[in-house]
Amino acid sequence: MWNTLNFIKSDFQLPMTATTADYLKLHFIVVILGFTAILGRLTDVSSLGVVFFRTLIAATGIGLWMLYKKKSLKINKTNFWKLMGVGFLLGAHWMCFFGSARVSTVAVSLICFSTTSFFTSLIEPYFQKKAISWFEVILGVLVVIGIGFVFTFESQYLTGIILGLIGALLAAIFSVLNAQLTTNIEARIITFYEMLGAFLSCWLLIPLVFVFAEAQTFQLIPSPEDWKWLFILGIICTVFPYIEMLNLLKKMTAFTVNLSLNLEPVYGIIMAYFIFGESEKMTGGFYVGAALILLTVVAHPLVERFKKKRRSIPSK
Questions:
Q1: pLDDT by residue (tens digit) across 43-57?
Q2: Is residue 107 in some structural domain?
């Protein structure tokens, strides 16, 4: 993996300026992504199976669309291995994400995912060869404190919290790497090969799971009802948002995108409560921690706007 990181670090370029329409599009994508953990729980397929079929459907959908439009999927060998490596990271992230929701709740999984911005604040400066922004680190620390509240009051979900945090770290690395790849590769091609890489990572793990997991706890074959949710997950909640997210990473930093994604738990928790009922109801401490995490979403753009205005004021 570190060879892939060094390849990408060597020619990192900063994104272009984003418009108001870009931020609105990002917000719409977050709403869609807020539904993904719910879809994962609505199926009876194991977490590995959910990622396996999600990525298979997404890669097939993009491949057929590119074939219909007579667009080439050819890339050079170096970019192929970069994309496959990032795809493996994506597959691992999703397995942790859905696994967290399965062993705990959708709310816990989504809140842990919000720590992605903290990990990004530490990882992204390394690739951009710039000093760490202490403001972003402070926001990230607030997220960690929020997670502390969640852990204190929901300690029965320890396994789910650990899986969620590992998934958030992988998501941070994944998004930072993608921010560079978008500079010279078309978004649809990136998504196709990364979905293919994530699919292959699941395919390689399935034999191991069959050997070491108990048969009654591992279900791979979807039911007719499961297929409905998996197609929604693979097309509407994967192909569209990930292609658009890659286009946005040409204009926004990975930290900005990941910080905005902290709103995902708001929509996900609300929708999960109405779909799953009392099983998604958390303690008061959980919501204190969640509010602290989501506060960072509001604080970041406000402070950045203030700093921009100060820089635009001419000195006397």
A1: 888 888 888 999 999
A2: yes
